[in-house]
Amino acid sequence: MKYTGNISPTLNDLNIRKRNEIRPIQQEAAEAVDRHESIFEENSRLKHILKCQRCNVNNVNALFLPCAHHRMCMKCASKYDVTVCPICDRPIREIVKTFMG
Ligand SMILES: [Zn+2]
Ligand SMILES: [Zn+2]
User: Fold this and answer.
1) Ligand 1 centroid vs 84 CA: distance in angstroms?
2) Which ligand has the shortest distance to the CA of 89?
3) pTM of the full predicted structure?
4) What is the mean pLDDT of residues 7-30?
């Protein structure tokens, strides 16, 4: 009995193999771009959130309790003698200074 198995890969096999090798790299590149964009978006979104709603200059560092809203800096919170949360209108029992980073 003669061995007739196909040992060397056909051209088609090679093409499939090549495509399979290339695809993950392209996918990775696309994902990297996606990641970069989403990090950038997240960053600008966070930056916007982290600015004090009142003065829009200082970073937010006053946490209102018990409602837990976090939209104002300590300066504004004490300057305007905030006793009611400007976001939800609930009375503030305590203002906790928070630290970022
Ligand atoms: Zn402020
Ligand atoms: Zn609130």
Assistant:
1) 15
2) 2
3) 0.54
4) 68
Instruction: Tell me, in angstroms, the distance from the centre of ligand 1 to residue 100's CA.
Output: 15
Where do the structural domains in the chain lie, given as residue ranges?
1-49, 62-97
What is the spatial distance between Cα 35 and Cα 84, in angstroms, rounded to a whole number?
39
Distance, CA of 62 to chain centre: 22
CA of 97 to the centre of ligand 1 (A): 13
| SS3 at position 95 | strand
The separation between the first and the last C-alpha atoms of the chain, rounded to the nearest angstrom, is 75
Report whether the peptide linkage leading into residue 66 is cis, meaning its omega lies within 30 degrees of zero: yes
pLDDT tens string 32-47: 777 776 777 777 666 6
CA 71 to centroid of ligand 2, rounded, Å:
9
Which of these, 101, 99, 93, 43, lies nearest to 73 by C-alpha position? 99
CA of residue 42 to ligand 2 center, whole Å = 23
- Sorting pLDDT into bands at 50, 70 and 90, what band is 81? confident
